[in-house]
Design a protein that fits this description.
253 residues; alpha/beta; Rossmann fold; globular
């Protein structure tokens, strides 16, 4: 199964969720493939092995049609990573938005999954709609949309939903999506208010699992660790374990 993590608003926890969902899968003995589809390369930076040369990154897949399996690097305690490079920012201008490039990642992953059919895949997206994000949306089985508990994030979720409705006639299928509340502070009334509004608008597509505002979740990326290795007893570790459980129960992973 392929999960893409996307929101057009920054600071909502996309990369943190990709990292910790991947770690939760590994702890469940299902080590995933993580793909860093963001030219900023935050996920690759946490891994600690951002390639100096673009031809060892995901850019080589788009530019040179390098097979995805040749770009994988091991990630201890998690699985495998295909790292990003800042050259990915050029993909929009080089390749345009024709069907061939928009379906490129999907086709590449299908070829990769012929070798390893049961391995989960998590795609960390860039925070804007372009060729890279569209590749992830076209390739994924389910889109996880992190929504931090503030009103600007709620507006961003509405914008993404409208975008998905435009894309669905092209894809000829409904894009499965799950709205994940992040930076959830149970002490603030606004957190419950945002959750209520999300559920009113999107019903069962809103996950019951939430990611609490938590020091361990915030600290761990700066230490190049997932939240489980940083503090396994933290509320954040519990939250990501619950997220994996719910996605599994729903059949998304």
């Amino acid at each position: 199964m392929r999960i893409a993590i996307f929101n057009q608003k920054g600071g909502v926890g996309k990369t943190t969720t990709a990292l910790n969902l991947g770690a939760a899968l590994s702890r469940a003995e299902r080590p995933p493939l993580l793909i860093d589809l963001d030219p900023q390369g935050h996920l690759s930076s946490i891994h600690g092995a951002t390639p100096a040369e673009a031809n060892r990154s995901l850019f080589a897949f788009f530019q040179d049609t390098c097979p995805l399996n040749e770009l994988e690097v091991p990630w201890e305690h998690i699985g495998q990573l295909i790292p990003a490079h800042q050259q990915l920012i050029k993909v929009d201008s080089i390749f345009g938005k024709g069907p061939a490039v928009l379906n490129k990642l999907r086709i590449g992953l299908e070829q990769l999954e012929a070798r390893q059919p049961r391995r989960p895949c998590i795609i960390d997206c860039c925070p804007y709609i372009g060729v890279l994000a569209l590749n992830a949306i076209f390739a994924c089985d389910c889109l996880v949309i992190p929504v931090s508990t503030d009103y600007l994030s709620l507006q961003a979720a509405d914008h993404i939903t409208r975008t998905l409705k435009v894309l669905e006639p092209v894809l000829k299928r409904r894009i499965e999506r799950r709205y994940l509340l992040t930076r959830f502070d149970r002490r603030r009334r606004m957190s419950d208010d945002i959750r209520s509004k999300l559920r009113e608008r999107y019903g069962d597509d809103v996950l019951d699992a939430v990611i609490s505002e938590n020091v361990a979740v915030a600290e761990s990326p700066s230490l190049n660790r997932d939240v489980f290795r940083h503090n396994i007893s933290s509320p954040g570790a519990h939250d990501y374990k619950q997220l994996l459980y719910e996605l599994t129960e729903r059949g998304d992973l």
